[in-house]
Amino acid sequence: MWAFVFKRTLIALSVALTISVLCFSLLQLSGDLALSIGGPEATAEQVEQIRKDYGLDRPVVHQFATWLWGAVQLDFGRSYYYQSDVTDLVVERLPVTMTLGVMSLAIALGVSIPLGVVAALKRGSWIDRMAMAIAVTGQAMPNFWFGLTLIIVFAVKLQWFPAAGSDSWQGFVLPAIALGYYATPAMMRLTRSGMLEVLEADYIRTARAKGLRTGTVIFKHALRNAVIPVVALAAVELGFMLGGSVVIETVFSLRGLGQLAWNAISRNDYPVVQAIVLIIALFYIVLTLLADILNAILDPRLRAR
Amino acid sequence: MSNLSSTERSTAPASPLLSVKQLRVDLPVAKGTLHAVRGIDFHVERGEMLCLVGESGCGKSMTSLALMGLLPRKAQINADCLNFDGIDLLTMTEHERSNLRGARMAMIFQEPMTALNPAYTLGNQLCEALRRHQRVSRKAAHDRAVYLLERVGISAAAERMRQYPHQLSGGLRQRVMIAMALMCEPDLIIADEPTTALDVTIQAQILHLLRDLQQEFGTAVIFITHDLGVVARIADRVAVMYAGEVIETASAQALFKTPSHPYTQGLLRCIPSPGKTPPGSRLQAIPGVVPSLVGKLHGCAFCNRCDQADEICQTTPPLHPIASGHSARCHFAHPLASSAQINTPEVVS
């Protein structure tokens, strides 16, 4: 098991290094930085000065090494626009995005797994059809529209939750539902199809032949095997929620990473963009690593690979 | 019918462990109803090895699943009598059935590679059977599992307890399945082709093991197989199935000495024997195919493949008693009938 974890961690680290190279290359591909920092009115001398100040006159490899060395120490340089440390900006926004992501995932898992299990057990029943309807609606509905609908119903009409802001946990409920609902259908369908497949397995018949209670057969023997692909999907979905919550954060005016990324992109604030891209990529890597480890715990056959 | 049961009763002590009368299993299929088991009668004595023989699709697996109460949900089960040690299985609730399963009747399946849950250790899967049915400590369950693993010939049993199914070969897994079936000391084990998926050398070992354990623990076994070679090695009594019916029951000795149903005779002719079958000669086969079990069958199910078939075979034959404990579902069944000599059929009513 530890050999497996070690191997997976090494792979994850090499992926992270590759991504940092790509991430840095983005900056190089986006044109002459000194020109865009200086703006249209800058003179040639000013541009030259900026180039020197920001170290843009040095060789690319040198620049990369400096940037990477900084990134490893969590120093991503200074924001061109906010004129403050990128790290401070990110650290300030990170809790909002993390809270939103984790709450959304909890909602998505809390709905999709029970619903998937029941839909599989009562295949063809009204509850199965209802679950399918929810899945289709969820996949078809744009989440900004769903977010706005939630605001109209629960914030404006019923006034149960605030429409915007991240000052209290209540502020996260509606955006977490909007974001979580988006991830629910895929996980529910995967749980349902996984359960249907596993319930036909020989070892389920063996479990029943031992006289085990229905609950034991379903939860101990079937669900554990059915949920393995769902874990991998959940990791990807959480990564998506952390990185792709731009729309929801905008709709609900949450000051999270997504919003920061959106502002930074529209203002050519490259150090911020770079840092966010790298951080979100690292989230994906860590989440995938965790999902791999969790899967190996669930399915011992994976440990050998 | 009354004639048959009286002959059976005279040979059987008190009451059999399991008695089955007119068991029927119907499955709805696209084209109508598949009558997988079409009214079969048999019984199992305490501590005996009954072999249920027949080719694929003859209803032997459906019979075993019906006995265990593990039929697919859409299957319909009917019987005049399905009695296990004085308990009527037909009127039991699902919960009562599950109390019996694993505790008093256990099952060993054909595919050892897929019959164990890949996610749990062998120890976990062995112990849960016992702890479901009996109030025993973890330690006691563990000790019993280790003891049984050793009894089924698995070395380093204590270490094996912590292993997962994928770390074991097919033969070892089948041994684990046997140990699992024995966990609660059941009165009856149903073994559904337990050696079919194994290498020939392993097959022999598993057969020996089952036979030894059956005698040691005094467990009754219904051994389902399509292989008459296996039957010859282990059976006390045999029930031959064809197209959802039991067409002949006899002691193993009587069956091989005086097979009375043309189908049984055909099956026996199909076994090539070294020394008797000339090298290079064509292997024997029964011509024709098994009739479809969708819809009603009229007359003798075997008549379209039978070289002795006559007009009378258009009517359903009863089970004719041939000798004590030996009967065959054939109009021509006769105590003196033997494979080659029936040319002038005579009707025994």
From TrEMBL, chain A:
PROSITE patterns: ABC_TM1. SUPFAM superfamilies: MetI-like (SSF161098). The keyword Chloroplast does not apply. Residues 94-291 form the ABC transmembrane type-1 domain. The keyword Membrane applies. It is a multi-pass membrane protein. It is found in: Cell membrane. Keywords: Cell membrane, Membrane, Transmembrane, Transmembrane helix, Transport. GO terms for molecular function: dipeptide transmembrane transporter activity. The chain crosses the membrane at residues 98-121, 133-156, 168-184, 226-252, 272-298. GO terms for cellular component: plasma membrane. InterPro entries: BPD_transp_1_N, MetI-like, MetI-like_sf. This is ABC transporter permease. It comes from Vreelandella nigrificans.
UniProtKB/TrEMBL annotation, chain B:
This is ABC-type dipeptide transporter. One of its GO terms (molecular function) is ATP hydrolysis activity. GO terms for biological process: peptide transport; transmembrane transport. It catalyses: a dipeptide(out) + ATP + H2O = a dipeptide(in) + ADP + phosphate + H(+). Residues 18-268 form the ABC transporter domain. It is found in: Cell inner membrane. Its EC number is 7.4.2.9. The keyword Membrane applies. It is a peripheral membrane protein.
